[in-house]
Amino acid sequence: MARYSGRIPADPDTDSDDAEQELTIGLFSCTRATGRQLEAGTGDSPLPMAQWPGRYTPANFYFPYEQLIENAGAHDPDLLVFCGDQYYEGNPTRMETRVDPGLDALYKWFLWLWAFRELTRDRPTILLTDDHDVYQPSLWGDGGEKTAVIPKGGYTGSPEFVNTVQRVQCNHNPDPYDPTPVERDIAVYYTAFRFGGVDFAVLEDRKFKSPPPDRDETPAPDERELLGPRQEQFLKKWGHEDTGADTEADVDGGTVPKICLTQTCFACLQTDPDGQPRTSFESNGYPKRGRDRAVELLGEAGALVLAGDLHFASLVRHGIHKHTDGPVQFTGPAGASCYQRWFEPTASLSHGMGLPHTGKFTDGFDNKLHVLAVENPEIPLATYSKHVGNQSRNILDRQLRNEGYGIVRVNQDEEAFTIECWPWDESPSATEAEQFSGWPYRLPFDQVRGITDET
Ligand SMILES: [Fe+2]
C-alpha cells in the first residue's frame, strides 16, 4: 500500500516560552486546473491585446500551480486556509455527471491534492467549500433545499454528493460547532477553534442563504437570510466568549485576536462596464438585513474577516450606519481562474487611500463600506466589454489577470495584523519583490472593530 505521510507541528502557541510571537497564515482560493476546457475547439481570442493560450500548452495549464506554491511556501506559513473553489467542475475536462458526479469530482479533487500535497503535508490546513466544489456556478443553499434551476435556492446535486464533497474536503477541520444537519440531511461544518494564540471562526455563508427574490418578491425582505439564525447565534457566542478555545489562554491575559474565515465579501464590491454599482445577488451584500446583522456581529467580535471567491483582491472596512463602523475584510485573489470581476466606480470616492478606486463607497444594495485597497484585472471592464460584449467575463491570458494569494501575519508583541497580497509569479525573496498596490496593510488589534467617531 502506498502512503503519503507528513508531520503536523504542535500548535505554535503551546510552545510555552519559545512561542513564536508571529503567526503566519496563507490564504488561497479558486484554483482552476486549466484555462480552457480540454474538449474545447481551437478558438481565437476576442481580445486583441490578449495572448491565446491554446489547449495542451503551458499557457493553458495552471495545474500544478508550481510558482504559486513555491512562492507562497517561501513565507513558511503556520496555517493554510483554502476558502473555496478548490476545483472547477468544467476543468480540465467537462463536467461528467451522467454516471456518478462523485467520481468526476474525485478526479478533480485528486488534482488539487496532488498539486498542494507538499505544502499541506506538514501544515494544518482549513478548507471551506464553495459553489464550484459542489458543481454549481452559484449557490444559494436555502437551508439545504433541492433545486433544479439556479438561481432558485438550494442544491442541484444529491445530498449524498454534497455530503461527500464536504466530507472529503472539510472532515479534517475541527469538529462542527453544532453538527445538526440542515434540510435533507446535508451536513454543516461551521465551527470555531484556537490556533497559534488566535481564535478562528469558520462560516458557511452560502448554506443558509436565501435565493434572489422572484417577481413576487418571494422571499419577502423580512424573511431573507444570509448566515441564518443558527450561525448568527454562533457568531454572537464566539464574539463574546472564547468558543472552541482552551480555557487557559496563553496570551498573558491580553485580548485574543479573532479571525473569521468565510467564502465571500460582505458587500457587493463590483461595478458594471459604465462604472455603476452592480447588484450581484451572489455577493454577501445581499440580503442587506442579513448582511448588516453579520457585519455587526463580526464587528462586535472584533474579527478580521478573510475570504476569496471574487477572483480579484480587495481590502475593505465595512460600515453599517457610517462607512467605517464595521470590521475589516480581506478578500484574497484567485490562485488561478478565468472569470473576472471589476471594481471601477466612475464616481471618485472620498477619503481615498492614494490609490485608484479606494475610499468610501455605497454598493448596489445600499451597503456602506470603505475600500482600502483593490487590485483589478489589467484591462478595464469598459475596454473588455467593447471587444467581448456582455457574453462572457473570462480573460484567458494570465498576464492580464492579477492572481495570487494572501499572507496574514498576526503579531502578538506588536498587537497588529499585517495583511499582504502577493502575485503568484513574484518571488517574495527577490530583492525588489513587490506585492499588489495597497498591500501590505497594517491593522492594529485595537482598530479591528471599526471607527465610530468619523464625521
Ligand atoms: Fe471562484
TrEMBL record:
Residues 207-226 are annotated as: Disordered. InterPro entries: Metallo-depent_PP-like (IPR029052), PhoD-like_MPP (IPR018946), PhoD-like_sf (IPR038607), Phospholipid_Metab_Enz (IPR052900). Gene3D superfamilies: PhoD-like phosphatase (3.60.21.70). Residues 58-314 form the PhoD-like phosphatase metallophosphatase domain. Coiled coil: none annotated. This is Alkaline phosphatase D family protein.
